[in-house]
Amino acid sequence: MHPSNRERTAVRVATRHPAPAGGRRTSSNRRSGRPRRPGPVRRVLTLVTTVVLAVGALVVGGGTASADPTASEWQRLRQCESGDNYTINTGNGYYGAYQFDLSTWRSVGGTGYPHQASRATQDALALKLWQQRGWSPWTCASILGLGTSTVAPPPPALPTPPRGSVDAVAVSELSATVSGWAYDPDVADRSIDVHVYVNGRAQAVPTDRDRSDVNAVFGITGRHGYSVDVTLTAGKNTVCVYAIGTVRDNNTLLSCRDVVAVVPPRGSWDGAAVDGQRASLSGWAFDPSASGESIETHVYVNGKGYAFRADQARADVNAVFGIPGRHGFSVSVPLSGGANEVCVFAIGRSAGNNLLIGCRTLQGVAPVVPPRGSWDGAAVDGLTASLSGWTFDPSASGDSIETHVYVNGKGYGFRADQARNDVNAVFGISGRHGFSVRVPLSMGPNEVCVFGIGRSAGNNTLIGCRTVQGVVPPRGAIDAVTRSGNNAVVSGWTFDPMASGDSIETHVYVNGSGYGFRADQARADVNAVFGISGRHGFSITVPLSAGNNNVCVFGIGKVPNNNTLIGCRDVRR
Prior knowledge:
Helix content is 13%, strand content 42%. By secondary structure, it is mainly β. The chain folds into 5 domains: 5-144, Lysozyme, CATH 1.10.530.10; 163-261, Immunoglobulin-like (Sandwich), CATH 2.60.40.10; 267-364, Sandwich (Immunoglobulin-like); 372-470, Sandwich (Immunoglobulin-like); 475-572, Immunoglobulins (Immunoglobulin-like). It has a 4-stranded antiparallel β-sheet, with no helix packed on it. A 4-stranded antiparallel β-sheet has the order 13-12-15-16, with no helix packed on it. Strand 19 (402-407) and strand 20 (410-415) form a beta hairpin. Residues 70-140 form the Resuscitation-promoting factor core lysozyme-like domain.
């Protein structure tokens, strides 16, 4: 890259290497050999200078008397030096309209920076320097012929400065893509270079990309677009772009921008252990820009966020990355039943500087809700029990489920698939959930238990257990009913199989009027036939009414309401 136009043509004001008496400054008067960034664009300006300069006789460059320079001479000098810009500061060590360096500025009484002084102050101190040394401090004076002719030649024609734009500086972590366009109006059909500076370090880039939009706007041809990736450092970076004209030192500053580069956090999701409806997640995360500090970790489960701090010891991470601090995390988050989308983020110290560590699908186990149900009733008929009720599984409330009935440990399976609109209305469910089942009983007490069987394996509910009596009715016979005067003699036998060694009562009803007796007479024949013991015979005398009489005999069992009609006979008196 070549130095700027100012650095090539303008004479810098300097106290070192004064010009020899009576002559121009030699090449040794100019500073050279140090790299310089492209200087400002010089433009031909029409400016009426209103500086009032003192007039007097001076001894200049070895005693030759001369009048003070005219306003026109000063304006030409400023135009050559700085483009007549009193506030210019390109960063090359020379300032203001007359391009003073600081040592020369201060040698003539200036304070602060020349480009920050008023126009009047800059004009007055330039005159003061001229009164001390004539035109020798300014090479532009020699170029313009100041002091050698009463009629100054016109300034040399200046090239048209390049035009261009920085469209974007797109930052991505520690790099940026700089793009835009530039062209030189003097050779508008040719591509030129742009120089991209990042924190003072330059990179030359050709404008060799098609930009038909630019061509259309300016009515030019050729390729004038550029795009280049540059490296940034963490934190603030200054990016400046110059368009470099085809004529040496004809350069234009297109733009300078400050951009911030961030280094994203680093991290790892090491493991996930699911227990029912919770997941335990472990891993580590840290922000390289503050590697000694613990940062936050955000976990999202199906879009819902949970914040934790990665502040557990992870000596392995510290050793691998050569960092201090505590950067591990081990957190527990809730899951829903079924598939869950779980994502873990490391949250950097700078706003928006976050890293997606990873996403996984974790299966949460739905909570097991046991079946609900009720055993409404049990009706016993001898050695059979009729059971009724309802049951359903809340996790599949529209489906009918099985009902298991255990009688003294022996199981019987049925489906609860009968309509129970009352149950549906109470619980707000659909389907058929009633049951009405018959199970066999053993004689005597039976332990009967009813279970609702859920859809998930092992998800069963004990609806209830009851003791249900299995009843065998008494047995018996009427052997004879014989009239004896106004009475009848009724004889026979009866016993209760559930207590076959005991004598039971016998009730005789004559036309609805009852008489109670005990069947406690010996009947060896009955014992022999049924293989029982005890006394089970009866012979009962009961009164008769005139006319026809209906005589009925009942065996009364040991269990309440376990009675048997042995028989009925008609007898006339």
